[in-house]
Amino acid sequence: MRILIDDERTQTPTGVVPDLIVKNYDAAIDILMAFDELGWLSDDDLYLDHDLGGNETGYDLMCWIEKQGVISNPKRIICVSDNAPGRAKIEQVIIKLYGKLFYD
């Protein structure tokens, strides 16, 4: 499954159409916790934007993921943000968790 966490996009910048679009931080946490509990994340690609339309950002979500350890080995987390400073922060956490970056 492809999950896009983005307040504006309906597909990734490379044209991938997601199976599920999550529009904000709170909804993303709810979805990730539910999918993790069901064991559904191990084959999923998460596409993550930095700007999520509220006070919390994609970076905040990555920090939450790291702190909670809620993600059960998703196949990939791919940053799709055009916000260069935000993208750099998200990618630092991805590298910390996976040892590498993923690209679409």
Distance between the termini: 14 Å
Helix content, binned percent: 25-40%
Which architecture name does CATH use?
Answer: 3-Layer(aba) Sandwich
Uncertain runs are none
What is the CATH topology?
Answer: Rossmann fold
User: Number of DSSP strands?
Assistant: 4
Strand content: 5-15%
Report the principal-axis shape: globular
Fourth-level CATH superfamily: Response regulator
For the record, the count of structural domains works out to 1
Mean pLDDT rating: 91
Q: What is the CATH class designation? A: Alpha Beta
Q: Secondary-structure element order, as H and E?
A: EEHEHEH
Structural class: alpha/beta
Strand order of the largest sheet: 2-1-3-4
